[in-house]
From TrEMBL, chain A:
GO terms for molecular function: electron transfer activity. Its cofactor is AMP; FAD. Keywords: Electron transport, Mitochondrion, Transport. One of its GO terms (cellular component) is mitochondrial matrix. One of its GO terms (biological process) is amino acid catabolic process. The keyword tRNA-binding does not apply. Pfam families: ETF. This is Probable electron transfer flavoprotein subunit beta. SUPFAM superfamilies: Adenine nucleotide alpha hydrolases-like (SSF52402). It comes from the Eukaryota.
Automatic annotation (TrEMBL), chain B:
It comes from the Eukaryota. InterPro entries: DHS-like_NAD/FAD-binding_dom, ETF_a/b_N, ETF_a/FixB, ETF_alpha_N, ETF_asu_C, ETF_asu_C_CS, Rossmann-like_a/b/a_fold. The lineage of its organism: Eukaryota, Fungi, Dikarya, Ascomycota, Saccharomycotina. The electron transfer flavoprotein serves as a specific electron acceptor for several dehydrogenases, including five acyl-CoA dehydrogenases, glutaryl-CoA and sarcosine dehydrogenase. It transfers the electrons to the main mitochondrial respiratory chain via ETF-ubiquinone oxidoreductase (ETF dehydrogenase). This is Probable electron transfer flavoprotein subunit alpha. Residues 55-243 form the Electron transfer flavoprotein alpha/beta-subunit N-terminal domain. Its cofactor is FAD. It is found in: Mitochondrion matrix. Belongs to the ETF alpha-subunit/FixB family. GO terms for molecular function: electron transfer activity; flavin adenine dinucleotide binding. Heterodimer of an alpha and a beta subunit. Binds 1 FAD per dimer. Coiled coil: none annotated. It comes from Blastobotrys adeninivorans (Yeast). GO terms for cellular component: mitochondrial matrix.
Amino acid sequence: MSSKLRILVPVKRVIDAAIRPRVNKAQTGVETQGVKFSINPFCDIALEEALRIRERTKASSLVEKVHAVSAGSSKSQETLRQALAKGADDSTLIDVGDANLEPLSVAKMLKKVAEEQNSNLIILGKQAIDNDQNQTGQMLAGLLKWPQATNASKVEIDEANSRVTVTREVDGGTETVSAPLPMVITTDLRLNEPRYASLPNIMKAKKKPLKVVKADDLGVDTASRMETLKVSEPPARQAGVIVESTDELIERLQKGGAL
Amino acid sequence: MAAVQTSKSLSRKGSEKWRSQHYRSFPTHDTFHFTMLRFSRTISGRANWARLASTLAYVEHAGGQATPGSLSAINAARQIQGSDEVTALVAGSNASEVANAIKKVSGLSKVLVAESGSYDHHMPETVAELLVANVKKHGFTHLVAGASSVGKNVLPRTAALLDVQAVSDISKVVSEDTFERPIYAGNAIATTKSNDSVKVITVRASTFDAAAEGSSEAAVEAAEDPSPEALAKWESEELTKSERPDLGTAQRVVSGGRGLKDKENFEKVMYPFADALGAAVGASRAAVDSGFADNSLQVGQTGKVVAPELYVAVGISGAIQHLAGMKDSKTIVAINKDAEAPIFQVADVGLVADLFEAVPDLTNKLKK
């Protein structure tokens, strides 16, 4: 490949996937006090893929750099340190304080960082498990006017022809698309199995670069376009019954009209 | 006659105010003339109001037919604007064929056709440009599509080009700018109001009925075609063939989990059970990750969201990510040997039993 890969990996700090979130009393959001946060699982997969591309193309030193970026409160530093411990080279924190960020604002900020880092491949998670939007990667690709391949389950880089081929998970099966660099890829669950950071690497990550910028420094307006009027618990289901036999199960379903 | 009187008196208050503001010097001696004028004003006033919301629905299609998810999106679009004035847009080299197939769908007043190979396979780079051009040309206030893998791929890109924040996977229309959508794997429902000039929305198919065919026929017109540059190339696809109903829209779904132990057991136990019920087959993430079933059968936050009449969970513990994909099902049945499994908390009917005995037994009894 004529040009080296400068991979940008956006990562998000979210409530840990194993925790069941509770709606707060004021019904303005979910309870975040004293709750465990982690890297969004799909972002973890995106980072892993960037690292694997580097490992796969070690012979030609194709990957020049893997840069991790996160937008959020100063606590997102932890997420970036984790990314650095796993193998990212350097990182940027876009510190927005407690502001609630929407995908469009994040995409605009990521565009600025991608330009600054001269990135030519951006790998993101397909969705964040908090807002479940599944938008940021597509928006970023649109703003940059780059091709996009979402829900990737396989990424192949053809160095000779400077093309990236991606197998995507779609309704009913898979689809394969290809595009020249630069491009945006979002990761699906089955792309890879993320690694754990080793203790020595966690220690080394503390010395790796973490640059902090503000949304204003990037010249991006982060004002919300959407208003959250209310956040509520989903309607509770009526308590069910436990039946003793398959006959009783069929009888219940017939009586309830389900069969 | 009495009915006319009533409707007149109901509209009087608004019209009086409107008249006092705009027609202060209007001659009121000709009562009959004035009444007629006021009446026509009221009608045109309503028409103007209806025109405030105008919706474009992007129609996803396969095999010359609109997908059921697209028809659900059209239904959601009708709810948004409270009228049958939805415009559909069909794109691709067989767009005319699809347009003819859907022009009778009730709720549609117009079908725009972009017949060009550039839009085949719903490639986001070209389709987003097409949607932007048509939203701008016709001044649509809303753009909707199903929250399928196509809708999720194309609409956010379109929204960014229009510089608006998209609204993903809505489960309810509250008003023309306010929508409900599940967040945190369905553990919370957010009511959100969009302040953008164009609302770009994907619609959760399982919570809206598909629009059916009506008696009238929508006009078919050529869409504005910006002939965008193709940035990516579609190479191939590999679709899972199945004779069973489509998972996303099936009335009955049977899903298997880790409890099936391996692929052979999954096929031996679940497929005959599905056939006995006329159901689609789904799977938990654990079952898919272990290779028991294809990825496209995964039900959950990261897979398909289903809401059938009957959902039978077999050997599935009920992790929150799985519940996100099925807990709006009308009747949920759980078959699991672990009485403490969380799936029993959402099940309407639970059977604590070894699935390798219970499911074949059920299959036999249902066949009779």
